[in-house]
Design goal:
Layout (H helix, E strand, L loop, with lengths): L5 H5 L28 H21 L10 H5 L1 H21 L20 H11 L14 H16 L13 E5 L2 H16 L1 H10 L13 H8 L2 E6 L4 E6 L5 H4 L4 H14 L5 H14 L1 H12 L7 E5 L5 H8 L7 E4 L9 H13 L4 E7 L11 H12 L6 E6 L21 H6 L17 H7 L7 E4 L12 E5 L36 H13 L6 H21 L7 E5 L9 H11 L5 H6 L1 H9 L6 E8 L5 H14 L16 E5 L1 H14 L9 E7 L7 H23 L6 E6 L9 E6 L10 E9 L2 H17 L4 E4 L14 H6 L1 H4 L2 E5 L7 E14 L13 E6 L4 E5 L6 E3 L1 E3 L9 H6 L1 E5 L5 E5 L2 E5 L4 E2 L8 E2 L20 E4 L3 E4 L5 E2 L8 E2 L41 E5 L8 E3 L15 E8 L4
Parallel strand pairs: 4-5, 4-6, 6-7, 7-8
Antiparallel strand pairs: 1-9, 2-3, 8-9, 10-11, 11-13, 12-13, 14-15, 14-17, 15-16, 16-19, 17-18, 18-19, 20-21, 20-24, 21-23, 22-34, 24-35, 25-26, 27-28, 29-30, 31-32, 33-35
Helix pairs in contact: 2-5, 5-19, 6-19, 7-14, 8-12, 9-11, 15-16, 20-26, 24-26
């Protein structure tokens, strides 16, 4: 009746992927890219697709009239509605701007990344037709696409997809996701469990009202009841063939799946010359005895079964398994979690104990579930051992289906499927060894799965059903799950043959089976396109996931070493180091051969490659815990994980640009995670009590990650940890801010920027913070303006001092610095005292934005940067530059620029970038026979004594503090086009462009004998109004730009280890040269 697409029938398995000598470069054609680098290809291809769609519409009965005429398009209603649609779409796009950027390399949280371009284009192409795969009449093309996808996935997983072999033919279909797939798999298993009882009941038909089936002869019934089943015999203590009539209820509840699938057919086949009518009536009779008709209570009562059937899952099971039990009427108590071993995999020994108990008490077991890649622990259960256990218990009389939850990890099977090509192309290992002969642009390595994991995926086909999600590691659009049955007949036990969607024998409609009815044909179209373009072998999907695996191993190495020896925190990955290493030797190898090393160098080193192959998670998810060093309290550690999760999560109302890194936070149940969690707590220095443990989860689906960028993410993560530790440990004290970006009359709002006054003496003050605020009400706004004018008239700083609000010690979040700026219950209205106001007035401010919030890094390993760095931020009307404090003692210095650098975009300015002062060469100046060689970066600040360290062979002629003596009126032209006029006898103290006049022969007076650091060039005080005009060029990372500094700036504060400070009111009017060294991207 139905004509199947020849391509779908003959092309059961997907391509494995093409081979290239530079295999990693193929990936660049498969994705749109983190920054939409393939947007031109995507738009061009979709335009071609859309043109083809338009052609198909026009060519379908082309003589039919046109409805939307030009006259209609010219009408006002038409134009208004089109404008309204565009307006609403743009409004939606603006709202979408607050969405999470899954394609960004900064996204490391849930199991999401970029979509494959073939999948997205295939989906969009089919979406234009809006086919419904509930039945073939609504989807004559995409139904066959779904069938082909199912065949491809079954073949990839190792099931038989070719008829004619001894083993059953597999079958798969597309679902909306792994949860539905898991529920369906258990549903099918439950129905299959009771099928033998239904067949026997239909043959005996002991219902006194109905009597024996009249359409069957006594001989046919007798022969049917003699159908043999392989069941366990208590007498012989082994399995043997037993007639259906003689099987007990317990025996019929423990029959092999394949026997059950063929049982009705085998019974009918044994009946002699049964008519089609009788066959149909008998099948209807069996259907009436099934659990689908009687329901669970009905069938248990009819067959005097006292125990509700159960199923087992690993203790770290996905929540869909508990849903399944309640939906199927089994109840939540039917789910029996199996303890985890030290590697967070299902403990087969505990599973054995549980099954022995079920066998002893004759409790029917529907299914045993193995997780082939858990979604938090990234663990792959030992499916080979689980299968062997099932075979062992079969021989004891306990049987069940084995289900594999591969929703997350199923596609990793492609990593061990080789492309059978005979092309002689140099392998990647050889290319690595001969890299001088190739250009390794964008090289990302491929890392093998561990030997254990390879073994499990190599035997995943031992499961009776496997769930697998193309919308996870298949990189396809939602909804895109799938369920594959080892025996295609298993699907008949969850079939509903309704005349609206069933058209008789051979109907390929997919909506007959499973939970869903209507479902998009676009989903299998996208999946099929992705499979066919990329390939289901280790050169296609396996390559993507192999690079993701390498990323996961590199991240594991980073998490293991991210905390420095003197850091106030520790970071402990879930998985311990490989058996051939101890903690010390593993960290030593990472620091010497992996950390901060170029990717190519790491993967040329056999020791590093061996470690990476053995270490880390089973799949591409790292889980770890961060703890305060020396803390053993689990609750305090849990607070830190929550704080870190908050700081690295985008929620409704969160400003996306202020979340520089996204990592997920979750919790491990102490009871279910057992031994593994106790060992993890011990390694983290925590008490091994029964308290649940919060952890962080880092998913590594980004296939383009370089080891260098992972090191940068580690540095960024340390900074976030410092901030979150402060959130938990800082007490409530007063804080002082200084105005850095004043009001702008041109701006719509009355906002201003304020800078935090850092103080190294107190933990609560060891921060650099830049905040955009505004007065909370018009009255406070007027007070604020008056205060700013008063300070300006007196030529003093505009200082604000926080007024701690009332709170209870029992409050979850106390109003320390972090919380008053970040949390809505504080930052919408916090009080500050106008510190330099004679009346001491208090106003309320509201936080609008926080361009920078950073706790100082007090580690001894921190050093001064080679070139001084400034953080540049602002908005449309203001550009502010604030010195980046690194190693103490250091300088705190903020200055307002006259204008935004030409090529520094407003987006970059609002985000904030780090720029460094640039060396402009060596200037030689000779005066009165004294030679001085200056290399713009000459004196380093030191504590306790006036000692100047001279850099790069610079020689200074210093006489009692006289640094430079220049004849009056002498103009010196310094390279960099800076024109400076120096007064006679001027002695200058130089730091970050800060100039200070000192009388000739008088040494600088330094508070607590701290000598000012001279850096990035000698900055001299010059006549007011001298500015250098400069040409501007497009700004890119590393490119230099020049920027005139505004004359008026604010106090420079020297922050020392003992709170040494020098306050100066400075005026600057000089052009300086900067280079962007950090953009808002990793």
């Amino acid at each position: 009746m139905f004509s199947h697409n020849a391509r779908a029938e003959n092309n059961r398995s997907a391509p494995l992927g093409d081979r290239y000598s530079e295999q990693w470069k193929a990936l660049s054609a498969w994705f749109l890219g983190p920054r939409a680098e393939n947007s031109d290809v995507f738009l061009e291809t979709f335009q071609d697709i859309f043109k083809e769609h338009v052609r198909m519409r026009n060519n379908y009965f082309p003589s039919d009239p046109t409805y939307i005429t030009q006259e209609m398009k010219s009408s006002q209603p038409y134009k208004s509605e089109i404008e309204n649609m565009k307006r609403e779409l743009m409004r939606m796009q603006r709202e979408m701007d607050q969405n999470i950027r899954f394609s960004s390399p900064r996204y490391l949280a849930h199991m999401q990344w970029d979509l494959s371009m073939p999948a997205l284009l295939g989906y969009m192409s089919a979406m234009l037709f809006n086919q419904n795969n509930v039945d073939i009449s609504g989807s004559p093309v995409t139904t066959l696409y779904e069938k082909q996808v199912g065949q491809q996935l079954c073949g990839m997983l190792g099931y038989n997809i070719f008829p004619g072999k001894k083993e059953p033919v597999a079958w798969g279909h597309v679902t909306c996701g792994g949860s539905i797939s898991n529920i369906e798999a258990l549903w099918a298993s439950r129905n299959i469990k009771f099928e033998p009882l239904a067949v026997k009941a239909a043959l005996l038909n002991d219902d006194p009202k109905a009597g024996a089936p009249a359409f069957l002869s006594e001989e046919q019934i007798r022969v049917g009841l003699k159908t043999n089943l392989l069941v366990y015999s208590q007498d012989s203590q082994m399995r043997k063939l037993t007639p259906l009539k003689n099987c007990t209820t317990w025996q019929l509840l423990n029959v092999d799946v394949d026997e059950i699938c063929d049982l009705t057919e085998n019974v009918i086949a044994r009946m002699n010359r049964i008519s089609e009518f009788a066959k149909k009536k008998f099948q209807d009779l069996v259907d009436g005895e099934r659990i689908a008709s009687l329901g669970l209570p009905g069938i248990l009562k009819k067959h005097n079964i006292d125990q509700v059937p159960v199923y087992t899952v690993p203790a770290n099971n996905h929540y869909s398994w508990s849903k399944a039990g309640t939906l199927l009427g089994l109840g939540s108590n039917a789910l029996h979690p199996i303890q985890l071993d030290i590697n967070f995999r299902q403990d087969v020994d505990h599973l054995r104990e549980v099954l022995e108990k079920f066998l002893e008490n004759e409790i029917p077991v529907i299914s045993v579930v193995a997780a082939m890649g858990s979604t938090e622990e990234s663990a792959v259960d030992p499916i080979m051992e689980t299968y062997a256990l099932r075979e062992e218990f079969k021989e004891k009389g306990l049987n069940f289906t084995l289900l594999a939850d591969g929703a997350w990890g199923g596609y990793l099977k492609t990593m061990i499927i080789d492309n059978p090509t005979t092309d002689i192309i140099p392998d990647e290992g050889r290319l690595l060894r001969e890299s001088n002969k190739m250009k390794f642009e964008g090289f990302v390595p491929y890392c093998e799965l561990s030997p254990y994991v390879q073994k499990q995926y190599g035997n995943i086909q031992l499961a009776d059903a496997i769930s697998i999600d193309p919308h996870k590691t298949g990189f396809c659009p939602y909804p895109g799950g799938s369920l594959c049955y080892r025996n295609e007949k298993m699907r008949f036990f969850v079939a509903v043959y309704h005349p609206e969607v069933f058209y008789g024998e051979g109907d390929p409609s997919m909506g007959l089976y499973g939970i869903e009815g209507s479902k998009p044909g676009a989903s299998p179209a996208g999946i099929l396109m992705s499979h066919n373009v990329i390939g289901l072998g280790n050169r296609g999907y396996g390559r993507i996931l192999g690079q993701g695996t390498a990323t996961a191993k590199l991240f594991y190495s980073m998490w293991l070493t991210v905390a420095r020896e003197d850091d106030p925190f520790v970071c402990v990955p879930l998985q311990n180091v490989p058996d051939s290493f101890d903690y010390t030797s593993a960290r030593k190898l990472i620091r010497e051969k992996i950390a901060h090393k170029p990717t190519m160098e790491v993967f040329r080193d056999p020791d590093a490659v061996n470690f990476l192959t053995l270490c880390g998670p089973d799949t591409m998810i790292n889980t770890f815990v961060v703890n305060f060093r020396g803390n053993d309290n689990v609750e305090k550690s849990n607070k830190l994980q929550v704080a870190l999760g908050d700081a690295m999560s985008i929620r409704l109302g969160t400003k996306v640009s202020r979340i520089p890194l996204m990592i997920m936070q979750t919790s491990f149940d102490a009871k279910s995670h057992g031994l593994g969690l106790r060992v993890l707590k011990k390694r983290a220095g925590l008490r091994q009590d029964d308290t649940d443990l919060n952890v962080l989860v880092n998913t590594c689906m980004n296939a383009w990650r370089q080891n260098e960028s992972i090191s940068e993410i580690g540095d960024l993560f340390r900074k976030i940890v410092f901030n979150c530790m402060g959130r938990i440990e800082d007490s409530v004290i007063k804080h002082r801010f200084v105005l850095s970006g004043p009001f702008d009359d041109k701006a719509r709002d009355q906002s201003m920027f304020i800078e935090y006054l850092t103080d190294s003496d107190f933990q609560e003050h060891q921060y650099q913070v830049s905040v955009k605020v505004e007065a909370n009400c018009p009255t406070d706004g007027e007070k604020l303006k008056e205060y700013v004018k008063l300070c300006s008239d007196k030529d003093i700083m505009v200082v604000f001092e926080t007024v701690p609000p009332r709170y209870n010690d029992s409050d979850k979040d106390i109003p320390n610095l972090y919380n008053i700026l970040h949390l809505n219950n504080w930052n919408r209205r916090f009080s500050v005292k106008l510190a330099n106001d004679p009346e001491g007035r208090i106003i309320s401010l509201k936080v609008l934005d926080i361009p920078r919030y950073q706790r100082l890094d007090m580690s001894a390993s921190v050093d001064y940067p080679e070139k001084q760095q400034y953080f540049i931020y602002g908005d449309t009307h203001r550009t502010i530059m604030s010195h980046v404090i690194t190693k103490l003692p250091d300088i705190q210095h903020t200055v307002t620029l006259t204008e935004r650098p030409h090529s520094l975009t407003e987006v970059m300015l609002e985000q904030g970038v780090v720029a460094e002062l640039v060396d402009r060469g060596v200037v030689e100046k000779v005066d009165e026979g004294v030679a001085e060689k200056v290399d713009e970066g000459v004196v380093e600040m030191v504590d306790e004594g006036a000692v100047e360290k001279v850099d790069q062979g610079v020689v200074d002629n210093v006489d009692q503090g006289v640094v430079e003596k220049v004849d009056e009126g002498v103009l010196e032209k310094v390279e960099g086009s800076v024109v400076e006029k120096v007064d006679q006898g001027a002695v200058e103290k130089v730091d970050q462009g800060v100039a200070e006049n000192v009388d000739e022969g008088v040494a600088e007076k330094v508070y607590q004998e701290v000598v000012g650091k001279v850096d990035e060039g000698v900055v001299k005080k010059v006549d007011q109004g001298v500015m250098e005009k400069v040409e501007r060029s497009p700004l890119v990372l590393g490119e230099e730009f020049t920027q005139p500094l505004q004359r008026k700036c604010y106090e420079a504060t020297f922050v020392g280890e003992r709170n040494a400070r020098i306050y100066t009111n400075v005026h600057i009017a000089e052009t300086r040269i900067f280079k962007i060294v950090q953009l808002p991207a990793v």
